[in-house]
Specification:
Blueprint lengths: L4 E6 H15 L4 E4 L2 H5 L3 H10 L4 E4 L2 H8 L2 H4 L5 E4 L8 H6 L2 E5 L3 H13 L3 E6 L14 H9 L4 E7 L12 H19 L6 E3 L3 H6 L7 E4 L10 H9 L11 E6 L2 E5 L4 E2 L5 E2 L4 E6 L15 E4 L2 E6 L7 E4 L11 E8 L2 E3 L1 H8 L3 H6 L7 E4 L1
């Protein structure tokens, strides 16, 4: 390894999780891995290549830039019919390029219909769209009262093909009570019935997120979107508790990512010395400090000053404040450590583990944020 800090992506763990969910949803449906936010920090191109080689056709993305990056991956270019669903807005001037790359477009407001109709006319081909129904997030989507006007607008546009319809859950992860989620399911079913009565019958229906895919088979429909759990993480502790209560808690999710860095310096620090900015930590005894070439710029949050990293299979506490590009760790109890040793900031080493959930607890956030904020500049390497 010629870099000082890098991410290792386990192909075997990723494929293991993929097969878990394929078995979970059963035959007759397709899994849609969600690769937005640089594949939740794991690397869009790297993860996309592995999943395409494993037979995935559908991919959920956020932006046009993500779609075009993924479409350029050799494994995707060799596919006969890649299906890249944009889950958010696409500027009209980028629509043709995304369409040519296999893009599908989520439509959640009327203005997008005109932009996509124009793109389809210029391209001389129908544009596949997925209608987003607002059922309780109040973020993106058509309200029930807007469906008649939507149906009328679709009838007047010859270059739009309604391929799918979907919604998103607001309160399915962070609770063990799912009344609100069930009400959203009811609203979604009612909206589909109303669309059908208005002459709009999308071929594909999808609603699942990771938590729904784990807890509620009734949300599977035709496509099943899976994000955080494809990468080996439970959406929340509440989801795990709910899964255990329903007999689904044995799902063997395996974290896919390990973040490593090399010690670039090991130095003696005498007793009484203050360490780092703000003099927030003082060495009470003589000790040895290791310097890691990572900091909050790389996604190692400044609030992780109470965390540990793993060195030679043992925990080494972070000392002082996490800095922009550097972090200091206490090696006083590890006299054999030396410059160049490998440290694990996130993941496993030997019998020890630093999980995204542990770091999220220290940072006062969620595992999604810990993972998705990992610097895009950090090299990602597929490891078996």
């Amino acid at each position: 390894m010629h870099t000082l800090s890098w991410l290792e992506i386990s192909r075997s763990h990723l494929l293991h999780n993929l097969e878990l969910f394929r078995a979970q949803i059963g035959p007759g449906r397709e899994l849609m891995p969600v690769l937005k936010a640089n594949a939740y920090g794991h690397g869009l191109e790297e993860v996309g290549a592995v999943l395409a080689a494993a037979g995935c056709r559908w991919f959920g993305l956020h932006s046009a830039e993500e779609a075009l990056r993924l479409a350029a991956v050799p494994e995707l270019r060799r596919m006969a019919d890649p299906r890249l669903l944009l889950l958010s807005a696409v500027p009209g001037e980028q629509a043709e390029a995304v369409l040519a790359a296999g893009g599908r477009f989520t439509v959640f407001e009327p203005e997008a219909l005109d932009e996509l109709e124009a793109a389809g006319a210029r391209a001389g081909r129908p544009v596949p769209i997925h209608l987003k129904i607002e059922t309780g997030v109040q973020r993106q989507g058509f309200l029930d009262s807007e469906l008649p006007d939507l149906a009328a607008a679709l009838r007047s546009r010859s270059h739009l093909r309604v391929e799918g319809v979907h919604t998103h859950f607001a309160n399915i992860e962070d609770t063990t009570r799912h009344d609100y989620a069930r009400e959203q399911m009811r609203r979604f079913a009612a909206a589909r019935e109303r669309l059908a009565a208005l002459g709009v019958e999308p071929g594909l229906v999808h609603a699942s997120c990771s938590a729904a895919a784990i807890l509620f088979p009734e949300t599977y429909h035709d496509l099943v979107r899976v994000g955080i759990s494809l990468y080996g993480h439970w959406p929340s502790q509440e989801t795990r508790i709910s899964a255990q209560a329903t007999g689904r808690g044995r799902l063997d999710l395996r974290p896919v990512l390990t973040w490593k860095a090399r010690l670039i310096q090991v130095k003696h620090v005498p007793a009484g010395s203050f360490v780092g900015y703000g003099c927030t930590w003082k060495a009470e005894t003589d000790t040895r400090l290791g310097v890691l070439p990572v900091g909050y710029y790389d996604g190692y949050d400044r609030s992780l000053s109470g965390a540990h990293v793993l060195v030679r299979g043992r925990r080494a506490p972070v000392r002082g404040r996490v800095m922009m590009n550097l972090t200091l760790v206490d090696l006083g109890h590890l006299p054999e450590t030396a410059r160049g040793d490998e440290a694990v900031l996130l993941g496993s080493q030997g019998e020890e583990e630093v999980s995204a959930e542990l770091l999220a607890g220290l940072a006062g956030t969620i595992n999604y944020e810990i993972l998705s904020r990992l610097g895009a500049h950090l090299p990602r390497h597929i490891a078996d």
